[in-house]
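User: Quick sanity check before I run a bigger batch. Here is a single chain. Can you write out its predicted 3D structure?
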Amino acid sequence: MATPLFPTPVPLPPDARFDIGPAQYPAVHLDTTVTIPLSDGAVLCADLNRPAYRRAEPASGAFPVIVNFTPYNRMGNRSSARFARAGRRLGRRVPGSDRQRFRGRDLVHTLAGGALDVFATNRTTIERGYATLVVDVRGTGSSTGSWDFFGPREHQDYAEVLAWVREQPWCDGHLAVTGVSYGAIAALIAAGQRPDGLDAVFAIVAGEDPVRELGLTGGVPSPFIAAWMAAVNAAKLLPSPRGMIRNRVLGPYLRDRLRNPGPSWLRRAYDIAMVDGHEDAHLNDQWAQRLPNFEQIAAPTWIHGAWHDVYNRSNFRMYDRLSLPDGAKQVLVDDGYHISIGSGFGEAGNPPALDELQCAWFDKWLKGIDNGINGYGPITVRRQGGGGWVTRSTFPDPAAEVRRLYLSPEPTGSARHAGTDAALSDTPPTDSTHLPLPSGRNSMASNNSAVMSTGVTTLLGRRFGSDDRQAEATAVTFTTEPFDTDLVLSGPMNLRLRVEAGGTEAFWSVTVTDVEPDGASATLTRGALLSSLRALDEKNSTYVGDDLLFAVHTLRADSILPVEPGVPFDLDIEINPTEAVLRAGHRLRVAVAAGSFPRHWLPPRVKRKIDGQAVVLDPDHPSHLTFLAVPAADSPADS
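Assistant: Done. Predicted structure follows.
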């Protein structure tokens, strides 16, 4: 009987370790002069790292090759690789917290878990017989051409690069793609084209749909995008001259930079935000053609995310779209941020160090080593609230059941700091009440700041990560009574709101928090929506029976629904998935605000349409939070 391609794995706990063997090569040979010609005449520049016994001379023979596409200038990867081992020592000097909540010290401690290795060039893999290639994408770093992020030509570039790599004498024909953030999305796009020889994907903090999740979240732009585009365009003006001169690329590089000296995409982002009716201010076919084709990915794929990542919406959506068996697809979600990947990894009770985990994944799928990693997970999550690591075959927790809590006007006494203190109750209100949303400047001291700074502001203390009370001063809060027993939340949520707008537009920002006995309001997850974009994408929304659990909106110009001043209407706000333990004595809170800077920015074209807004508590149209939950005793953590 033939051996199945994906044999049934043996289940493993979250803190399992995998034998990656000893280092076979004591040195790394770095070649910064690699150039890759493309079919349209553009040339991409790359760094090639190969196993070596001495740095000056690469080991002979061919190796599996791990490819990383980056827009951030590969010189940054090169510098990070030099600092990786010193960074690990620094990270160990600042021990992590107990992880009841993510702290600033956990961000520094990230360096000890292998994060720099997988961002830069994973020396752990090179020492064990892999080559790595870091490629500046078209129009960035030292590569020629013009940058058009994730555009169709860039998609083609990925395929051409991988085909070129397989023809090189240092490649044994086996390929993997990896990356962090942009590089992870690029890896998934490349894999969706099913290139020959691609055996594995390791995607770290990727997104299913970057424009929906980050560029136009809830239908409004993020100020992060402008800063990001400016940074990419600045980095493209810092070439790596040695290889460019040697390979006669300097002339084409200068020509292309002079043709496009300014940040063209930055100008386009400005127009999207400022010009009323701009075609790209909504989701459309142009944005859709830049996305990965998950259903076509055939290579075993690892998805690595975080609850407070900028792409926290889509970890499980990406996993579910992969047409691969359990074990050949994995998703791991930590309680952290965009740049805190692997914080605490490698320590007792935690997954392996990230560089070793990646090496084990590639050993399995590129070298055929039966190390058992296909028995990991396939769903591995760290529960917020100190709930520890859990592994399962499905998400949400299969024991969780649909629950509904209604928004009620009665004050709870738990949120005197808020604009309005109201309740979350098991029963709908009996009388109609209007609760206007407070006006005023949003506080920068919030979890939203931590998310948009990729975790950096957690260094400033709890107010910038795990205590949102200052931000709730401009919100209407709805809070439960304290829980009698521990409760596990698992999965996405939906907030049905009956609302009223004074103008022809209104924006709604929703934050779900775990309120501790001392009053601290720790953010668990969030959502947002522009009122005129409330039309549902019924096909892609998630229902459990008749209950809407996760509302997906089309966010397209052809589905705009008018807002009539003074006339109440209903809308459903999708709230990103999470898994968290609410301890006995804690409360659940929903905070509704008219803004959430710096997560969202309301441009003048939107602001001039807004003239006050209110939550309408109507017994005939009750507002409610729908979610999945299970008593903690019925859903124990594995570690």
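The two ends are 38 Å apart (CA to CA).

User: Great, the batch can go ahead then.
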